[in-house]
Write a structure and sequence with these properties.
single chain; about 280 residues; alpha/beta; Rossmann fold; 7-stranded mixed sheet; 10 helices; about 40% helix; about 25% strand
């Protein structure tokens, strides 16, 4: 599928994904509901952190949750069973080599996948192919470059920068959120709409500070400490200083703001309307 998953697939990362999903339900899923009878593809479902919310919010739709990792799908299956959901089928496949015919799905949902791919337009084009004419794709991605916090600190920004560099070296893009509109257009999707979905946290929201600032974002940066030191991007003392500075932003007098983006595009209704990708 293009690149390695820079965050790793261990127990801590699975817990971080679960915490992230819980903290971002409205940011990711607010306003999304698929009609009864719809066939919906979730590409890159991972451990099912978003799958159960999707399926529970649209109980009349049928979901096919796809991922390349057998281990992640095993975890997703456990989560789906525990939720008692009956409208989810799990499939193992690469998004670039999906075993589905053209027009197999009414809708597609992609969350936090494109940031890890070397060629996101190719993936979006593959997804457009399996949508029926007039079917929609919803894409959600973050943008590390649009992170703001108080107290600001250069060490914290340096630590975040290490995660951005590592993801780029792995073939991904931690700044992809701002690019969703042009990426969907390049992939031949029509009527594309994109919007920022910011998460703002201050001392009046201690629960969100714990769930998102600390357990989602800071945990993600902490998770790349080893690779950062191994790559020589930053020394241990400097990286740890950045983590402590980020922790201040999760405190009672701290402020943290991160921007996600959500975009929706439509598969062309008529033949020949898709825009070719520019070389």
């Amino acid at each position: 599928m293009g690149s390695s998953y820079v965050h790793g697939r261990g127990v801590r990362e699975r817990q971080r994904l679960q915490d992230q999903a819980g903290a971002l339900v409205e940011v990711v899923h607010g306003g999304i509901a698929f009609p009864p009878g719809s066939a919906v593809l979730e590409a890159g479902c991972g451990v099912g952190a978003q799958t159960c919310t999707l399926a529970a919010r649209s109980p009349g739709a049928r979901f096919t949750a796809l991922d390349i990792s057998a281990e992640s799908l095993r975890r997703a299956a456990e989560r789906v069973r525990a939720s008692g959901l009956r409208n989810v089928e799990l499939r193992q496949a690469d998004v670039l080599e999906m075993p589905f015919g053209a027009g197999s799905f009414d809708h597609a949902f992609v969350c936090f996948l494109l940031e890890h791919l070397k060629d996101p337009v190719r993936a979006l084009t593959a997804l457009r192919r399996v949508l029926r004419p007039g079917g929609t794709i919803t894409v959600v991605e973050g943008d590390h470059g649009l992170t703001a916090f108080h107290p600001d600190h250069p060490a914290a920004r340096a630590a975040i920068g290490c995660q951005v560099q590592l993801q780029a070296r792995a073939g991904g893009n931690a700044l992809i959120g701002r690019q969703l509109y042009p990426l969907l257009v390049q992939a031949g999707l029509c009527e594309v709409r994109a919007e920022p979905r910011p998460v703002y946290v201050d001392g009046s929201r201690p629960g969100l500070a714990d769930a998102f600032t600390r357990k989602t974002f800071i945990a993600m940066i902490r998770g790349v400490r080893g690779p950062t030191l191994a790559a020589g991007l930053l020394g241990a003392a400097a990286f740890d200083s950045g983590l402590r500075a980020l922790e201040r932003a999760a405190g009672p007098d701290g402020v943290f703001c991160y921007t996600f983006f959500r975009a929706v595009g439509m598969a062309p209704r008529g033949a020949g309307r898709a825009r070719p990708r520019r070389s």
